[in-house]
Amino acid sequence: MDNKQMLMIPGPTPVPEPVLLALARHPISHRSDEYSAIMGEVNHNLKWLHQTENDVLVLTASGTGAMEAGIINFLSPGDRVLVGCNGKFGERWADLCAAFGLEVEKITAQWGKSIDTEQFRAKLAADTDKTIKAVIITHSETSTGVLNDLETLNRHVKEHGKALIIVDAVTSLGSVHLPIDRWGLDVVVSGSQKGYMTPPGLGFVSVSPKAWEAYQTAKLPRFYLDLGVYKKAAANNINPFTPPVNVVVALQVALRMMQAEGLDSIFARHQRLMKATREALKALSLPLFAADEVASPAITAVAPISVESEQIRSVMQQRFNIALAGGQDHLKGKIFRIGHLGFVSDRDILCLIAALEATLQELGYESLVPGVGVAAALRVMSH
């Protein structure tokens, strides 16, 4: 019998059955009253999830498409930007900005470490002429499992007064408490295939009034990703271009499920799953790539020493049909990553850890004491 596929990667994430069933509906016209009613509910619930009264605009795009929209709508060629780079997606921001002719200054940290917010503070404080137009940060660095200190960084940006703060929340939105309005975040981008429990296909951009002011003078070229067009359409609960109608219908169902669970419960669940996973890995003597203080509730990266990460991934996939993510760029073959965001439960983590123990035993892992990983996870869950 074929095993049920179990996605334990940072994205796409598992999709609940009611959401999958919504995808199976016959498509409806995206210019119909029925679709507008669905879009109206989605727009309202997206604001709830984002903890904002700002516009949350829905794009037919991946998270990277939302990132690009977050650049081209608010900046001009030659603008000076500070970009935090401590993983693949911070580097992607830097590459994206360079592609559009921005003056990029990287503030870097070793992969697996968090960005030093003090370096940003010093740069911002020294900018008396207010030449820095934006500070760009990846909140949850998907490639390493590090959660950057967005709250502190945002305070430094607010003290600067002029710069926008642009945030990649692709694996933090829906997994981590992110109070957009209370913190005054300007541009926040994310994607449907992560904490939203929905298949890939939709990107989201939250835009503050301050960012809309910058939009008025931004000079980078834009057409399909012109957020002003999306803002006008959203006011009428429509899309400016043909959307993936069934993915929007699926998102409607997913957001209803998230509202039923409640934000506090969602964030508490992700914290519990993160801690259970990390404690289990420690009990199995598998080194964690990021320290507990900077760990992301969405992803845990593991750097095994006496057994190869790709062997672990291979056995987990072939024997148990459990997908784990590998390392990226220079970390390929050196780490594996466990996604525990979105539609993931205690049972999923226990199943994962039990399968991991069996995998380690098959690979002759000398440090294995059978059952200790599952027991460690259970201790966390029992509290």
TrEMBL record:
* Keywords attached to this entry: Aminotransferase, Pyridoxal phosphate, Pyruvate, Transferase
Provide the cofactor list for this protein.
Answer: pyridoxal 5'-phosphate
Q: Where does the Aminotransferase class V domain lie? A: 27-328
Q: Return any one Pfam family short name.
A: Aminotran_5
Q: Which residues bind substrate?
A: R337
Q: Which SUPFAM superfamilies match?
A: PLP-dependent transferases
Q: Which residues carry this modification: N6-(pyridoxal phosphate)lysine?
A: K194
Q: Which GO terms describe its biological process?
A: glycine biosynthetic process, by transamination of glyoxylate
Q: Does the keyword Disulfide bond apply?
A: no
The record's InterPro entries line, in alphabetical order, gives: Aminotrans_V_dom (IPR000192), Aminotrans_V_PyrdxlP_BS (IPR020578), PyrdxlP-dep_Trfase (IPR015424), PyrdxlP-dep_Trfase_major (IPR015421), PyrdxlP-dep_Trfase_small (IPR015422), SP_NH2Trfase/AEP_transaminase (IPR024169)
Listed GO MF terms:
alanine-glyoxylate transaminase activity; L-serine-pyruvate transaminase activity
Domain of life the protein comes from = Bacteria
What family is this protein classified in?
Answer: Belongs to the class-V pyridoxal-phosphate-dependent aminotransferase family.
Entry protein name:
Serine-pyruvate aminotransferase/archaeal aspartate aminotransferase
